[in-house]
Design a protein that fits this description.
The protein is built from 13 helices and twelve strands. The protein is α/β, with parallel strands linked by helices and 332 residues long. The structure holds nicotinamide-adenine-dinucleotide.
């Protein structure tokens, strides 16, 4: 099936193809009859880039080291150099194959090379399939700050082949589920209940439902001025926990923990049940003062206040602007 995303960013509408085995026919969906730079990372099985490479007229493959640390200025510059040296023009294209790290870096390169060239995304982690591959945000981390240099650049197409998840580590898969649970908790009770009540989930259904939530949000608010902030549910405290964990916890695991502080008591039990089904953490010992200090540095803070997303009832949410110190009341 195909979901069309209508976007005001760069006035581009783009298709998201969600189909098993579609990677084998990617040239049916994307224009690969030109010079194509495939960007992937060392943790993504090379079979995926090989399959795509075979379908390109003039392919080049660029492999970065796996991990968040690769989303940096040095790699950004090296890829641009590679493109200049190989005489890429404005009519050529980039294809990202990998998770959010590859997608974010590739999108940013595509947004700036010759003021923007075509960009296709083949996300291969659950997180990137349900979340980061759509919405047009791309960025690198600079001087130790996450995602602080970037752009809004929509892909020309996204292709999701859930077969690629078969090689993904279970822990990474579960971290992606945290983002699905996040979206369902605020915006789709039916999906939340489906996750709660079924032991065998249909991952294609889950991806489609989660993407539909994200599509509706980014179409309504492409530049994150209001509604899009709902996607930050669990992220205010989650980001602070992520910084304190020094890499020992995955982003999705921190979001899982962060959500637990941002729900009413009656929601907590259900949320805990769903998170535990996917082996996600639901409690952690935190030092409230350390969390508060980190929230003060967060992009979601302004002055002494911070915006949070709070869930009183599954399938709904409210935005609250509170004094950062008041967060101590939530950190119980
Ligand atoms: N642009 C956005 O809107 C947005 C939204 C959410 C997150 N992000 C960004 O996404 C990034 C995190 O993305 P992620 O969770 O996908 O992590 P990731 O890209 O680091 O991938 C996780 C690991 O899985 C490996 N991998 C990828 N696909 C695989 C496969 N099919 N089989 C086996 N291994 C595979 C990778 O090599 C990597 O080691 C962060 O940088 C975050 O800032 C962006």
């Amino acid at each position: 099936m195909t979901i069309d995303v209508i976007s005001k960013v760069n006035d581009i509408n783009y298709p998201i193809i969600i189909e098993r085995d579609s990677i084998n026919n990617v040239s049916n969906y994307f224009n690969l009859k030109r010079k194509v730079l495939i960007i992937t990372d060392s943790g993504v099985p090379s079979i995926y880039s090989n399959i795509v490479k075979e379908q390109c007229m003039e392919p080049f493959v660029y492999v970065i080291l796996k991990g968040e640390a690769s989303k940096n200025f040095d790699n950004y510059k090296k890829i641009l150099e590679f493109m200049v040296n190989n005489k890429f023009t404005r009519t050529d294209a980039i294809v990202a194959i990998g998770g959010g790290v590859v997608g974010d870096l590739s999108g940013f390169v595509a947004s700036s090379y010759m003021r923007g060239i075509d960009f296709y995304n083949i996300p291969t982690t659950l997180l990137s399939q349900v979340d980061s591959s759509i919405g047009g945000k791309c960025a690198i981390d600079f001087l130790g700050v996450k995602n602080n240099i970037g752009a809004f650049k929509n892909p020309n197409g996204v292709l999701i082949d859930s077969n690629t998840l078969e090689t993904l580590e279970k822990r990474e898969f579960n971290a992606g589920m945290a983002e699905v649970i996040k979206m369902s908790a605020t915006s789709n009770k039916e999906l939340f209940d489906y996750l709660k009540n079924n032991s065998n989930i249909d991952i294609d259904y889950v991806i489609k439902e989660a993407l539909t939530i994200k599509k509706n949000v980014v179409e309504a608010d492409p530049f994150e001025q209001n509604l899009r902030k709902v996607l930050n549910f669990g992220h205010t405290i989650g980001h602070a926990i992520e910084s304190l964990s020094s890499g020992s916890l995955l982003h999705g695991e921190c979001v899982a923990l962060g959500m637990m502080y941002m729900v009413d008591e009656n929601v907590k039990k259900d949320l805990e049940t769903v998170l535990k089904k996917f082996d996600l953490p639901t409690s952690i010992n935190v030092n409230k003062n350390e969390i508060i200090d980190l929230v003060k540095l967060d992009k979601k803070s302004s002055g002494s206040k911070v915006s949070i997303v709070y869930v009183k009832e599954i399938g709904s949410f409210e935005f609250r602007k509170i004094e950062i110190n008041e967060l101590k009341d939530y950190l119980k």
